[in-house]
Amino acid sequence: MFISDPSVLMPEAPAIDIVEARWAAEYLSLMIAQLDPYSPVSMVLTQARRELTSLAQSAAHMQPLRIAA
Fold it and tell me: Measured in Å, how far apart are the chain's first and last C-alpha atoms?
């Protein structure tokens, strides 16, 4: 059997809504507050929070959109 449309083999990229990004950044802040500020886990979560916050701020200057994760 031949597949005429190869795009069916690739799953859609997951997307994050801006509201979800803001919620995740707030939740990460709560988790970071419970950790030692110099622990590796805290540093990784802090970087993730910065990236989510940056995406949410960028989207605030544009029309509503969905961001591919």
Answer: 33
For 18-66, the three-class secondary structure string (H helix, E strand, C coil) is HHHHHHHHHHHHHHHHCCCCCCHHHHHHHHHHHHHHHHHHHHHCCCCCE
Distance of CA 68 to the CA centre of its chain: 8
Look up the pTM and report it. 0.66
The first and second tokens of residue 3, run together, are 């597949």
**Domain residue limits, the chain:** 13-68
- When pLDDT is cut at 50, 70 and 90, the band that residue 44 belongs to is very high
